[in-house]
Amino acid sequence: AVYQLVVRFSLTTRVVMLGLIFIYPLAVALQYDYLLSQKDTRILAKEWMEDNIPAGTKILSNWGGINPTPTKEAILFQKELDEGSLRAADKALLALKDKDYPKPAYDILKLAYIDKEKLSSSEQLNNYRYFLVAFWQEEDLTIKERSIIGKARLLKEFKQSQEDVIRDVQGNRFMQPVSVLFFLERFGPTVRIYQL
Length: 196
What we know:
Structural class: alpha/beta
Low-confidence stretches: none
Shape: elongated
Distance between the termini: 68 Å
Mean pLDDT: 87
Helix content: 25-40%
Radius of gyration: 23 Å
Number of helices: 6
């Protein structure tokens, strides 16, 4: 039935129709490829931090994936708080010789991996100078993270776009039309760097 309908149109009209059918998916694919070539908000924040915050500085972080390099002392302190919080990358860093250790390295405490019950004392969070926060929705922040932010000064923010809407288009929460890709400048959650 569709074939009989299409053959009634002129060749030019059929070519235009065929082009229209493929243009939108092609545009979506090209935009997605473009976004993949841009630096994620966490990478931009990490680079900014490495350029603006001295190595060895005490930093709290709620980032789950991309983190600045922790010092060996920071890894050992985290292990003391919650041995189960160490990741394979932390264990690999501990095995490195000092001369091979990546720089810059920071005295960073990665809150995302520490069991909240093992981080009961707020004194353990004293003397930290910065707080790195990443979130998809502000409602995702814990009460403790909100409390820390409430006493801090925002230094820098990195967002997907100039819009205030955050879209997790790579995770399993992507329940939106693919047209949202055209409103993004890059992938990644909102990332904020606070001075404590």
